[in-house]
Amino acid sequence: QTIPPAAYIYGLPYAIYQKYNIRRYGFHGSSHQYVATRAAEILNRPLTELRLITCHLGNGSSITAIAGGKSVDTSMGFTPLEGLVMGTRCGDIDPAIIPHILRYEHISPDALYDLLNKKSGVLGISGISNDMRALLKAESSGNSRAKLAIDVFCYRIKKYIGSYLAVLNGAEAIVFTAGIGENSPTVRERSCRDMENLGIVLDKEKNLNTIAREGIISHENSPIKVLVIPTNEELLIASETYKILTNKN
Prior knowledge:
Elements: H1 5-8, H2 14-20, H3 29-43, E1 51-57, E2 61-67, E3 70-74, H4 97-105, H5 109-118, H6 121-126, H7 132-140, H8 144-168, E4 173-177, H9 178-183, H10 185-192, H11 204-209, E5 215-216, E6 225-228, H12 233-245
Parallel strand pairs: 1-4, 4-6
Antiparallel strand pairs: 1-2, 2-3, 5-6
């Protein structure tokens, strides 16, 4: 855990944090660590010198701000429910929505938890699917709710990228990974659209031609490089386990 207290403490009574350890923890750590390390290798620069924003986009999605090889903020929180809009998870919502739904829908806390985790996200918005491929196909056929779900998904990604650029005071690179991040040029393009003034300029052809493989998809003159790196959490876990067993730090 390298996230500073200002980033992991919630605006709750401090006694609640102390009693229940309710704070931001984050998830997908192995994936973010792997692609950050690999990005440094691709860019031929020490990881300790880089500011990176890593975007793990799948059915579960999270974004992490990394400075000098250490996570300084991440979108998921106390649970994987916080942050980005996901396949079936709602992501960030106004906390007052929770008692409002309980009061007017007359459902139990467990049923509400199930609704927020398994019936929300792009599935809930579109009413079609939690699969981005199905939503993109439906959008191309004129389905307005599929388009809305994709727009909301990409808008939240863009919003987090922008906020983490502020946290890091800029970045050397942005990395897309996981099922959607590696395989959807459309999502990558929409998530980075109209960010030229922030230093993010995609190369249209490179983006379209980079699917499920490593590649730099930003324009050669883009101040911030944008990369696609397939994640390999198993390799990282195996490597870290080997270091522990052989006492290699």
